[in-house]
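Each field is set out as follows.
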Amino acid sequence: MFGFYEDFYARVAHSSVHAEFCERVFGRNLCQHGFADMEQIHKLIEVLQLSSGQRVLDVGCGNGMIAEYIADTTGAHVTGLDNIPQAVDEALERTLPKADRLSFAVGDINALSLPDHEYDAIVSIDSIYFSDDYARTIRQWVDALKPGGRIGILYAHGREPWVPKDQFHVETLAPDHTPLAEALHANRLSYRTWDFTDDDYRLALLRKQVLAELRPRFEAEDLMFIYDNRMGDAHGVSQAVEEGMHARYLYEVQAPG
């Protein structure tokens, strides 16, 4: 997977077809790799009450375009963390004129070394999946928050195409029973959730439509590995939703005061 993301960020920085794909599917080209459209990102900003003067950590920031958008929109200082050095280098170079409110660093979600009580908020947009231990990762995030800080997590859980239907536990789809919720319970954290499952399904169908229309241009730019990855994700999500085996949520987690 590391190799895929290295290739992904090396290629999409100069890809006109990928930029158009993001614009048409998500509402703006922020180099999204997951399923977060602008509605979800704006809801994340709203529930975390991000504003000027706050310090925000974006875990799994990729090439930093979403972190940059959050900083531009809210005035907050945003630090982006990602384990793909080339993506971080690209983010640093692109945002150099905004270095007073944007910073980026290479870091592994499974080997975090975060300062204590540094951030007002932590953002995780489809990045918690890379953690080997959700409960440990959440605990490290909480330690990095100022008292009363918040964590915003956009997160999907469902049956993967290679998992037999009779082996998927449908009860884990409820917002209080997902693997993420279990990690929050283990840390005795309170949280609120917003259901984006219908939005996930709509975006999956839209992704398939737009990808099919743009396929010749993906071929022309020699980006079929991205086309295949995104189409596979879209098929997997749409099928799982239709089976009643997929859910997507925004979790807002409150750190102890």
Q: What stands out?
A: The chain is about 45% helix and 20% strand. The chain has one domain: 2-244.
